[in-house]
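Below is a filled-in request sheet from our internal design queue. Each sheet records the structural input a requester submitted and the sequence that came back. We keep these sheets so that new team members can see what a complete request looks like end to end.

REQUESTER: design group, bay 2
PRIORITY: normal
MODE: inverse folding
CHAIN LENGTH: 187
BACKBONE (tokenized):
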């Protein structure tokens, strides 16, 4: 196999895919996710308004949140690091009133990227990735059909036929046993 690639126009994953014969899987799943309150499970935001994350502080930043998030009314001081005092407002869940995170109202220049974004604490929220459900109802299987009145009638008819067959076989067995019993009594 003799393949030539122009290095300025080809992504390395394309080259790897062609050489190995396999598609290179993305490390990140790009499906949208919904963020929900960790206590009452109300939706509080989604990845469509993603602004970033703060691994060191265990937070995610969103540009927008749902109406289930209430912004506190009282400003308070928050120390992010040495010489980094900020003025913040707490974020509360409308359903259970638990603290979900904060909004930075005033920050030093080094933290301007956080100002007026919704910073949610990862410990206080959960997420659901859309399309991640894997369970199916048994009726959705390839060889199974849903139970309808017509189907139920057919099954009941078949059960009645089996019951009748079993009864006739039982009667026939009694006749055979009686015949055998009479044959022994005669001998």
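RETURNED SEQUENCE:
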């Amino acid at each position: 196999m003799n393949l030539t690639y122009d290095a300025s126009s080809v992504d390395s994953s394309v080259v790897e895919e062609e050489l190995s014969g396999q598609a290179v899987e993305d490390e990140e799943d790009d499906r949208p996710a919904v963020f929900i309150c960790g206590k009452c499970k109300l939706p509080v935001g989604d990845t469509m308004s993603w602004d970033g994350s703060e691994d060191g502080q265990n937070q995610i930043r969103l540009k927008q949140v749902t109406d289930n998030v209430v912004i506190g009314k009282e400003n308070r001081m928050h120390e992010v690091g040495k010489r980094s005092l900020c003025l913040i407002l707490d974020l509360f869940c409308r359903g259970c009133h638990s603290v979900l995170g904060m909004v930075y109202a005033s920050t030093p220049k080094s933290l301007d990227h956080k100002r007026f974004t919704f910073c949610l604490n990862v410990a206080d929220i959960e997420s659901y990735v859309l399309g991640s459900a894997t369970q199916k109802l048994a009726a959705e299987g390839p060889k199974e059909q849903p139970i309808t009145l017509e189907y139920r009638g057919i099954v009941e008819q078949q059960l009645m036929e089996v019951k009748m067959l079993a009864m006739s076989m039982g009667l026939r067995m009694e006749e055979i046993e009686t015949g055998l019993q009479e044959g022994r009594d005669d001998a």
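SHEET NOTES:
- The helical segments are 12-20, 149-186.
- Residues 150 and 156 are 10 Å apart (CA to CA).
FILED BY: M.R.
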